[in-house]
Amino acid sequence: MSLRSRSLFALLLLSSLSVSRARAEESDRNHPPAPDDGAENALCVRAYEQAQEQRHTGKLLEARVQLQSCARDACPKFIRSDCANWYGELQTEMPSVVFAARSAGRDLTDVQVSFQRRLLASRIDGEAIELDPGEYDFEFRSPGMQPLTQHVLISRGERNRLQRAELLPVAKVAAAPDEKKLPPPTQRSWLLPGVLGGVAVVGLSSFVAFGVWGHSAESKLETSCSPNCSKDQISSVKTKYVVADVSLAVGVVGLGLATYLALSSGPEQRAAHALPFNVQASAQGVTATYQEAF
Fold first, then answer.
1. Which of 80, 120, 237, 265 would bridge with 75, disulfide CB 3.0–4.6 Å?
2. How many domains does the chain have?
3. How far is 46 from 70, CA to CA, in rounded Å?
4. CB contact at 8 A, 163 and 138
């Protein structure tokens, strides 16, 4: 009998069993029920058909379950015989995979392997895992290792395929360098800028005063004795102009230093960025010097 003929025969058997079952329900309910051979045979026929369909579509794992069901002694002889033969053939078609993982030349066992969120192996132990033929994206995960996904094609009849994964350690995040602790902010002192500002005011005031005084004295000499004025009279006027010029220089330098120190952030920066001016006051007068390295 051909495979198609047997399938048609199984359908006819299932139809006749349904009719027999309907008639049995109309029988006398007072008698104890007999074993329902019709229902059992219906399960065998259904498993017989589903096993062929699932095997054809590549669902070998499900087909094997159905073949185990229709190969039972309770099934009709021809169904039981076909299912047993197909079961043996299916075992040779069923592919299997052996997972392995390494890192830096060392075998790993604490590795989980999953496919589409379905756990295939909780750890790697060298045992083969049976799968349906088809495409897979195996995801390997291990503590301290970067996850790895491998896309593979499993063929029908491919037995004990070694699927090895090379895992890389998780990159250690470099510790952030310690930030340099900034010195506590120092309280700004206004004493020195104030003193220099006072010197600038005095110098500029002295410049104005001696300049006016010298100009006035010069005008008197021009009206009184010019051009026959004495050397002492002329020297007195020149001295007033010299003092005015020195006062102007002291005022400008003092004003510049006072402004610079007032705008700087603290004594450290003032010391590091000190201007090459030096102002010294004594009983003989005020001296301003400038220094520059060559």
1. 80
2. 3
3. 8
4. yes
